[in-house]
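Hi F.,

I've been meaning to write this up properly since the lab meeting, where we talked about keeping a consistent format for the predictions we share between groups. The idea is simple: the sequence comes first, exactly as it goes in, then the structure tokens exactly as they come out, then a line or two of notes. No screenshots and no reformatting. I'm using this chain as the first example so we have something concrete to point to.
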Amino acid sequence: MKSRITTQFRQMFADLPKQVQEQTRKAYKQFKQEPSYSSLRFKKVHPKLPIYSVRIIDILPR
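Output, unedited:
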């Protein structure tokens, strides 16, 4: 699975509190290791292209 980070995401990410940024980094690392991890939820956001958003539904292990 390929993942991409948009410029808009980077800008919004920079505005997050440092603690939330760290949680986000941990979640992304978990996603890269195991995309089907139980706390990650995917939603298709484009009707034809394989573009998805991802939500983290709980705090990942530290």
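Notes:
The longest strand covers residues 40-44.
The beta strands are 40-44, 52-56.

If this format works for you, I'll send the rest the same way.

G.
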